[in-house]
Amino acid sequence: MITKEKMQFISNYVDSLFPDAKCELFYNKDYELAIAVMLSAQTTDKAVNATTYKLFADFDSLDKLENASVEEIEERIKSLGLYKNKAKNIKGIVHKIITDFNRELPSDKDLLQTLPGIGNKSAGVIRIEIFKIPDLPVDTHIIRITNRLGIANKNDEPIDIERKLKKLIPESNWIKTHHQLIHFGRYFCTAHSPKCSECKLRDICKY
Ligand code: SF4
User: Fold this and answer.
1) pTM of the model
2) Residue among 45, 86, 135, 139 flagged as catalytic
3) Cα 199 to middle of ligand 1, angstroms
4) 189 lies in which domain range?
5) pLDDT by residue (tens digit) across 130-140?
6) Contact present, 48 and 83 (Cβ < 8 Å)
């Protein structure tokens, strides 16, 4: 386990590299973000945006999505893996928001997790993005980086890493650091060709 001082050093570095890091999923409406986050499971934000751009243009309201057939939704997201299941989840999310939540996305984490395809990480992302509620959801990039930097162990589940990071980082920085760590993983400390030769974390990195 690293110290708070080391974590601060890491946070400062990713802050210097990606000062304006933010969510890269495309959406116009709150419920569209919930759909985009669900679609992003096991794929990239870029791949999701390539499908939601058309999906949200063709069905630009909760009612239009509610009235769309599963096949019509499948047609627009079929470039994504697991698209048949994800199309069903879109229908489930929309139906639940209309019938159980009075057409409004809830901010409560447990309620968000009752939406099909939305787990702890996705609920955290929605809370950060829509409601600005401090959280530190852990995605595949953050898992990789925290393992390389010795913050996490290889047997840690995402929820374990989330708890560790929350202890090391002041709550007021959770949202910012969440975005910056993801950008660091997406564009710098990538899975297959991390830029180690120019990385200022080399001395503390275990990779
Ligand atoms: S030294 Fe390489 S593996 Fe370690 S954090 Fe930097 S880029 Fe990632």
Assistant:
1) 0.95
2) 139
3) 6
4) 4-22+136-198
5) 999 999 999 99
6) no
